[in-house]
Design a protein that fits this description.
By secondary structure, the chain is an alpha+beta fold. It contains 5 helices and 5 strands. The protein has a 3-stranded antiparallel β-sheet with strand order 1-5-4. Strands 2-3 form a two-stranded antiparallel sheet. It comes from Caldicellulosiruptor morganii.
């Protein structure tokens, strides 16, 4: 059963002109995500897409950001589709709301990245 849907759209240009970009990356992304971003040669579209995915997941939980960005991790299935892994406070919120799964889709073009997350509830 669908609990909620979250969507986020970001302008890619926002990330190109960011001051203290390295600090931003360290604050927002987990080690696993940073490794993937490095593999993609710091592709700005990938970074924007992962950021949008984290925001979309937070919106799907209907809580806003009441936890750290690193409590939401975007990983990849073997087929390349993104998957959501939660930690700490985000995981606790899902458990308390009886959310069993969150699916996410990410897309980007030259100017924007967009992500949609669907939180699925038990029952």
């Amino acid at each position: 059963m669908v609990f909620n849907v979250g969507i986020d759209v970001v302008e890619i240009e926002r990330f190109k002109n960011m001051k203290r970009f390295d600090k931003f990356l360290e604050r927002v992304f987990t080690q696993s995500e940073l490794e993937y971003i490095r593999l993609k040669n710091y592709n700005i579209q990938t970074i924007a897409g992962y950021f949008a995915a984290k925001e979309a997941v937070a919106k799907a939980l209907s809580t806003g950001i009441v936890f750290g960005f690193k409590d939401i991790e975007i990983q990849k299935y073997k087929n390349g589709c993104p998957k959501v892994v939660l930690y700490n406070r985000a995981k606790e919120i899902c458990e308390s709301l009886k959310i069993k799964n969150i699916v996410v889709s990410i897309s980007h073009q030259k100017m924007v990245a967009v992500a949609c997350a669907i939180a699925e509830k038990e029952g």
